[in-house]
Amino acid sequence: MKDEGIVEYVQALKDQGVVHHIGFSSHTPEAANRILDDGICDMMMFSINPAYEFELSEKTDAGSQNQRNALYQRCQREGVGISVMKPFFAGKLLDAQASPFGRKLSIMQCIQFALDRPAVLSVVPGPSNAGEMEELLRYLDCTAEDRDYSILASEKLKATVMGNCVYCSHCQPCPAGIDIALVNKCYDLAKAGDLMARGHYDKLRLHASDCLHCLHCDDHCPFAVKQSDRMSEIASFFGF
Fold first, then answer.
1. Looking at the domain assignment, is residue 158 inside a domain?
2. How many domains does the chain have?
3. What does the pLDDT look like over 138-197, one tens digit per residue?
C-alpha cells in the first residue's frame, strides 16, 4: 500500500479532518506488527479465539501464544484498540464435534474470552440474520456463570495454559475484595512495558498487598495459578 500511495492518501485525509481514525485488519502477528511500526493506526481488527490463543489451530500463520500476547500488549501500550473478528473460530467452537477442545463452547464464553485480552474493545462476530443478532445481544444480560470459560482448563491445554492467569475471574469472589484478574492484567502489562498500567493499578480500590493469603483463589483457580504467591510478587513489583 505504501508503494501505491494509499497510506499517504489516508494520512492526508486524517490531517484534513476528513477521517478521524485510521485502522487496519490482519490475521497474523507478523503483518500486524509491521503495520504498527508505521505508527499511524488507532485501531486494529484481529482474529482472536481460544483455538488460536492456545495453538490448537492448523492455521500456520496465526502466530504462537507468545507472539499473540506480545501483540496485544503492544497495542495496549501504544493505545491501539482491537476489534475482534472470528471469535467462534468459524463456528467450530460452537460445535462439540468440530471444536479442537473436544467440547462445545458457548457464544457468551467466546465473547468474554476475547474481551479479556489486552487492548480489546469490541467483538464483531458478523451475524447473518436478526435471530443471530438477538442471540449475540444476550451477552448484555447474561450472568457471570454464562460467560465463565474455565472449562478450557482441560488436560489438552495443561502444557500451554496451566499455571498462567488468563483473567477469567473464576477465583472470585475474593474474601479480601481484590479484583484478582485486573490486578494480574495490570501486572502483566506493566512488565511488558505499558507505562499506563501502573497508573491503572494505583487507582484500584484494593491492591495485591491487601491479600489475606487465605488460599481461596488457589483452591478455586481452574488453571492452577498460585495466586497467593503471585499477589506477593505483584505487591513487591508495584511497591504495595
1. no
2. 2
3. 999 999 999 998 877 665 555 556 677 878 788 889 999 999 988 998 898 888 777 788
- Output the nine-digit C-alpha cell for 178: 481484590
Q: Which residue type occupies 197? A: A
Q: Is the residue at 156 inside a domain? A: no
pLDDT in tens, 67-117: 998 999 999 999 999 999 999 988 889 988 888 787 889 999 999 999 999
Q: Which residues are CB-contacts of 147 (< 8 A; sequence separation ≥ 6)?
A: 108, 109, 111, 112, 139
Instruction: Tell me, yes or no, whether 30 and 130 share the same domain.
Output: yes
Comparing CA positions, the residue from 96, 24, 88 lying closest to residue 52 is: 88
CATH number of 60's domain: 3.20.20.100
Burial of 91 (0-12, 13-18, 19+ CB in 10 A): exposed
CA within 13 Å, CB half, 48: 28
* pTM listed for this prediction: 0.67
Neighbours of 187 (CB within 10 A): 22
